[in-house]
């Protein structure tokens, strides 16, 4: 079964828009962590997980979110805020460049994705494997493959066009 080039390009665009949306979430989460106090973050985690834990007291995600919020030190909160904000801002700028079909943005986006994937794999190997991290890494790998494919096409088209 052969997939049409148009379908691959549509999938690539969907992946880029998902990356843009995820980048915005990271930027806002980073800003929230930077400007919210520990007590407020803990209260928010409790509010977000209360219904889920009433339904299933052993929910792993809700329980992990509460423990992460409660156990976060000021240094960890500062690092998480910085990481989320910068990670989101870099990705958003590069996605915007690729969506605008800027040739320089493709290799920069590909390099950034490779760096993010390597860091995510490092975190899984050395710290903790989570479903969210696995899902994010798989999506990043798919977008990386699609980005590389699209970059080759864009370069070929520009060379043929002169």
Contiguous helical run count: 6
Poorly predicted segments? none
- How many domains is the backbone divided into? 1
The biggest beta sheet reads: none
Q: β content, as a range? A: under 5%
| Helix amount | over 70%
Taking all Cα atoms into account, the compactness measure Rg is 19 Å
Q: How many strands?
A: 0
Structural class computed from helices and strand pairing = mainly alpha
Overall average residue pLDDT: 85
Q: Globular, elongated, flat, extended or rod-shaped: what is the shape?
A: elongated
Structure description:
The chain is an all-alpha fold and 162 residues long. It has one domain. Helix content is 86%, strand content 0%. α1 packs antiparallel against α4 (74-99), α2 runs antiparallel to α3 and α5 (105-126) runs antiparallel to α6. The longest helix has 31 residues, at 5-35. The two termini are 34 Å apart.
SSE inventory with pairings:
Elements: H1 5-35, H2 38-55, H3 60-71, H4 74-99, H5 105-126, H6 131-161
Helix pairs in contact: 1-4, 1-6, 2-3, 4-5, 5-6
């Amino acid at each position: 079964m052969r997939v049409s080039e148009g379908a691959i390009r549509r999938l690539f665009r969907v992946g880029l828009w998902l990356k843009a949306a995820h980048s915005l979430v990271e930027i806002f989460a980073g800003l929230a962590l930077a400007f919210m106090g520990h007590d407020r973050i803990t209260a928010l985690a409790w509010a977000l997980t209360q219904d889920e834990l009433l339904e299933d007291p052993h929910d792993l995600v809700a329980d992990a979110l509460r423990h992460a919020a409660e156990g976060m030190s000021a240094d960890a909160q500062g690092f998480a805020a910085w990481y989320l904000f910068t990670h989101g801002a870099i990705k958003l700028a590069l996605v915007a460049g690729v969506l605008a079909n800027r040739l320089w943005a493709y290799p920069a986006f590909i390099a950034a994705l490779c760096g993010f994937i390597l860091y995510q794999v490092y975190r899984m190997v050395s710290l903790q494997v989570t479903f969210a991290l696995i899902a994010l890494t798989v999506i990043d790998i798919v977008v990386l493959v699609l980005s590389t494919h699209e970059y080759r096409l864009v370069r070929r088209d520009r060379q043929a066009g002169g």
